Records
---
Amino acid sequence: MRTPLVLHAERLTKRYGRRPALTDCDLRIPRGHVVGLVGPNGAGKSTLLQLACGLIGPTSGTLSVLGSRPAANAAHLARVGFVAQDTPVYASFSIADHLKMGAWLNPSWDPALAKRRIAEVGLDPAQKAGRLSGGQRAQLALAIAAAKRPELLIFDEPAAALDPLARMGFMRSLVEFVGELGASAVLSSHLLSDVAQVCDYLVVLCASRIQIAGPVRDLLATHRRIAVDPAKVPAMSPTGDEIIWAEHGRALVRGDAAVRAGDAETVTLEELVLAYMSRAAGSAAAANAGTAVSR
């Protein structure tokens, strides 16, 4: 029996004019995970999430969300909750007004959940949204998204502009909502500490392409750091495994041989992500240089 997928992309491509935002992306993410989508600025993270929400369409390829075309109909829209990067709210509306609007727009709205979460984070329903702090706006946006009782919550770097204390509170609320709803979640972030804190599935997106994807535990279990000759770095490590990135006499490698080697060292999530991002950036730079020479 196949595991239901929360996101399924095949050769998904999105261009803005001649600039590629996503190129031939293949992705299969099973339900039941909190997914960390990481990559540098301009990697295509927001584009992927906007495609998943149906806000934009692909140039080519296919993408399904919860088994259907994104935003296929009103019923499908109700199954997805989205918190954008700037956690938009209506400045002249009170918090209570936002909850009333959420109830009017969403047939599966849970008023008890919304009111309880607003009270738990100390928000006054009568307060105007325009007078909220960044952390308070983020908590309001999260409560509204979760009160839809969606099957999938999508977050596009919602905590990027928050101070450390507000960000910690937001991440705690995110985990609580996912657990209470039994939902899946996709969190885009360039803050690896946030990803390490709450995510059990990782997608690294760089240079418009998926570099690696999988459960965090499995990825960490199949990568190791080993010593290599800095003057002579082969495509394969001395153990016969693939070298992802090498620098200063150390290499991050992927494969069974390195895992079994006694002198191989375990890697952190940050080391793994940076290795794949560095490899992608190096490949993109080499390709751009080759294009410039050919002209």
Note: The chain has two domains: 5-213, 222-294.
---
Amino acid sequence: MTFSDAVYAALGAGALAAAMLPRLVFRRPLSMPMVFLAVGVAVALLPLPLPVVDPVQDRLWVEHATEVCVIVSLMGAGLALNRPFGLRRWTGPWRLLGLAMPLTIATTGLLAVVLLDWPPAAALLVAAVLAPTDPVLAAEVRVGEPADSEHDDDEVRFTLTAEAGLNDGLAFPFVLAAIALAAASGGAWSAGWIGPWVLGDLLAKTAIGIGTGLVTGRLLGWIFFRAKPSAVRLSEHLEGFVALGATFLSYGIAEIAHGYGFLAVFVTACTVRAVERNHGYHKVLHEFTEQIERLLTAFFLFLLGAYLAKTGFDTLTWPAALLGLLLVVAVRPITAWVSQIGLSTGPREKIVTSAFGIRGIGSLFYLAYALGHNDFNGLAKPMWSLIAFTVLVSVILHGTTATPVITHLDRLRRTSRKAP
């Protein structure tokens, strides 16, 4: 038996497990990401000469592989949202993006300076990297699939899914701010980079990303549903792989135009959905992206588990572990709760929305990307340990609590609707 033979067998077993596990763990305090993370740890601890991905040495591979996983998940999230876009309809996500995310970045950055004594650029990078949320890692707290009615999305699932779809792109300016600060000052504080950052990285790139998503989504929506030749009207052929074409096209155009591709993909998905909101083709596209997303997520969490078992904790300090724990159990819940003050959402829904700020694949991408532009005073390994540990905590904590919490919330919601 050669090593490649073992890899083929492992990939086959993993793909089959990714198909079966969501059904096996359904309605249980367990999640597919938890299982693959545990399997990665267990396999890495076996007395076998198995290679382990080192995110420092294999940075470029990690960056592009996680990049694909994130954009596929963004397309699926946008297609799944049943609620039409609007300032009032999307009040919950806007609050989390406009208030909770900046507050989380500021608090986490301050904690990194105080607890870890890291320079401002490194502290800002860690805070920005940990800002995006990722409900993909706990399926109970995200919108399930496209439906005919906009009211099929309950407030918690809708808010968390829409937040994750947008903050994967809107965290990018803060990552670039950390890179700019590191380049301008060598890690100490400097203000010379702020003007170009605001005009270029914050405003211009965001506008390009959103504009690309709107134009691409409109064009694809016309092709899918309204083109005159039936051979071009792809919705009649029900081919799910078209979702990948839409994902890569939107992302590539936005990046070529120097915009945020993550934003473009999510906006493209939402725009395609809006062109013909109740068409069954959306479900076909969403199911395909969900299957690809599930395979990629399982693969990365397996590798993450192996990395943690081998070398991931080598440079993890107690203050860094405390920072990761504080982010998951205190910083995100408090800042998200504060951002929802004044909303008409019930107190239970606000608590659940605040608590499930899940960290995942997006954080791994952002760190790999940033470290490709600056070494941040040689802190690459401690940063990877901190981010990987935080994702581990989030996967375990949110994976075990998502099912019972959301099930209880759904039960209370049904009871309140039946009450006279």
Note: Residues 17-418 form a domain with the Na+/H+ antiporter like fold fold (CATH 1.20.1530.20).
---
Amino acid sequence: MAKKAQRRTDGLSKELIVKVATDLLDAGGETALTFRTLTTRLNTGYGAIYHHVANKSDLLAAATDEIIARVMTGVVTDAEPREALRTVALGLFDAIDAHPWVGAQLSREPWRPALLEIYESIGSLLDALNVPERSLFDAAGALVNYVLGVAGQNAANARVLTCSDADRSVFLATIAAQWAQLDPGQYPFVHKVATQLREHDDREQFLSGIDIFLAGIATLR
């Protein structure tokens, strides 16, 4: 008779559970994260996992907190505030691009430490840029919503392309060609930017938006 696989006898940490959960989420999205799969991957029982996390929602939140904490840790604290803001924004954009489920989780549970850390970091840097106190809350909210909104949409677009096995450059060229065929009298702007749509880089366009925002808040001072 074949030997039964031995369950792990070493200590099972929450960090290890979160790491394996993150791998599952990255590979297959939220539907891929089940406690049955976790017990198999970790070679342990349900009770050992429940000792560290209450349920799937708790595990999703813990994984999100860990990803965002990693981004915040990478910010150079003594950098010039404007450059630090760009670093934070780009770090969040890249993190959500690499872990698309993070964007959905941030909007689902905005009271969790992850979003609080984002607001604290961005709000403090805007304060360091001398944004007036009366405008600080609105400025922070606008920038956070821009960052998470664009990053989330970019991740969603990437998932669509992945599921359809479409090449991004081919996809954009097709859409740009459709835009170019539109009546310029009815769609003057869309017709004008068709070429830019085909050639644009999502990351660079995102950073251009950040620079436009920072130029705008400079007028508040």
Note: Residues 1-6 have pLDDT under 50 and may be disordered.
---
Amino acid sequence: MKTANNVIRILAFQEIYMRILYSFLTRIAYVHMWVAQFFSKKMRQFIQGRIYTFETIEKHIDPKDKTIWFHCASLGEFEQGVPIMEAVRKEFADHKIVVSFFSPSGFEVKKNTPLADVVVYLPMDTRQNAARFVKTIHPSLVIFVKYEFWPNYLWALSKKKAPTILVSGLFRRDQAFFKWYGGFMRRALHRFEHIFVQDRVSKELLKQLQYTQVTISGDTRFDRVSHQIEQDNALDFMEQFKGNSLCVVFGSTWPEDEAVLLGAINRSESTVKYVIAPHKIEVSKIDAFRKKITKPSVLYSEKKGKDLSEYQVLIVDTVGLLTKIYSYGDIAFVGGAMGNTGLHNILEPATFGIPIIIGKNYSTFPEAQRLEQLAGLFSIHSSETYIKIEQKLVADQSFRDKTGMICGHFVNQNTGATAKVMEYLKDLKAAKRIK
């Protein structure tokens, strides 16, 4: 018994020490980011946006309000959480919904979303910030999406005994939880009451950490995109631009992607039209890329008064239209994987039943690996390999249709994650765990 007590005391001391060290390093990181704001617009948004977090919450959340808190790292995680937010809004109509973001790319796009009553930046993960944030929003339920593990916030939530779950979780062996030095993060992970994971590999990895409150639900993004096909996706400018031509959509591209695609555009037949939707709208970079295009091109922002059918290349220099644009595509290239920024959402075009092409770096994206195995997706590593697969898809309609059908079926067969999460939440509600 004495030995056991000593072990407990040692572990408790380690926990306290690591929390102090973690909070100290978090503050150091914040200082570096504070300095970086003078050189980066995105970092300036990151720093300045957090100044108003508590003021915003106190303005919109009354101490008597019942709240549910969703946290998303960025825009991709928000889209992943949308189906659950919609379902939660209906099931818990008397609760206010708070959505927090870590990244400006999520907050700036979704700060006015009708799905939430309050949208804020998440304050840095210090003990003081976490305690104040949790106290201010006093959530009845907390839902983190996919990749967010903030130890001080999880500790503060466990003290308040607010049910806290992770949805669409995806775990890999190279994460800190599974390293010799990851004890502190492992203990933070155990503060989740339940974790919904995308695949069996993730569940097995968690089992190795003696974490057993796990459900394989799949990825809520399948539910999200499957609903898109039921929406009104009509865009007048796309009707005019595409006409009866075959259309290739380049979605969420980065410079590394565009460098590979440029040769294909300039060597293409006049019967093929291209839509380019860059991930980041930066005027100087868009202008520089456009100057390299030898085909007739037009920007979305200058379309007024123009006959778009006369152009072969349309560059979409705005946000919020890509999902609907995919509905006009016959082939889609999804950006992010030619460099190291991360592959963007391949399920958005897949739901419309069109073939998908991506770059070479996608080893951490299981949906891309699976769709490639099914022969609905193609990975390229150079301009030459891209041109080869595009030409085959353009020339062979049967091949194009078959490949697209595989993508559509892939989405349809993997829906249902939201229903599994909501079943669990309804059980918590019935047990009066969510008040």
Note: The chain has two domains: 48-218+416-430, 234-412.
